[in-house]
Amino acid sequence: MSNRRLYELHASICQTLANPKRLEVIDCLRDGELPVSRLAEITNIGQANLSQHLALMREKGIVIARREGVNVYYRLSNPKITQACDLMRQVLLEYLEAAGELAETSRQ
Amino acid sequence: MSNRRLYELHASICQTLANPKRLEVIDCLRDGELPVSRLAEITNIGQANLSQHLALMREKGIVIARREGVNVYYRLSNPKITQACDLMRQVLLEYLEAAGELAETSRQ
DNA sequence: TTAGAATATTCGATAATTCTAATAAACTGA
DNA sequence: TCAGTTTATTAGAATTATCGAATATTCTAA
Q: Which candidate among A13, A56, A106, B103 keeps its CA 20 to 30 Å from the CA of A43?
């Protein structure tokens, strides 16, 4: 597979994570599967919109759906997704901290 | 800081990584800083466009620029960015592998 | 000080994302 | 089979991202 194509696929994974609602859903699924109804409760995302976000993550292979009766349970396809999110969260927090200290310094 | 706001900032980090050209640039900077001219050579991205991508990454705190004479050197702001990218790359590769095996299975 | 090299910014055109509202589909129990 | 519950899909409007072309800025060496 060409490098160009790999970068495109890689970017499409990142793109899938590049939305606050989807990140919240991923966070909800960190410890195991949940039905859509529960995700809707926790996140307060409208039904249609939540379903769209889940469909997108399904297509990109980020989550896996399992139907049980009338409910559909979603789970993360790979624990490394949580790890990657956590790392990026750390990058963010370190950035915020550095920015905070910078503001501290310039205030003196 | 509110959770909502953190998810937004987190998403904006992911958004910054969600582009094949920017991922390629980040890959180039994995082992240290490089001048824009060198990045342009390696990646074959047009001057204006490359500069736009670098500006975006600067704004989001992903890269840091250092001017030395007529050249501007860019570097990653945090080694965890490389780690996060590598993890997501692994997620992708494992997905591709699983998809490949799936195709293998269904062909039998 | 001025020409030339390296980099950045601005401006539109095009494409991609995101959302809500409406509707459809899948399933269960009566 | 029908009503009700849960989830998915579609359509269209609004916002946002991406790119190339043109232009501006920053710096150095002559």
A: A13
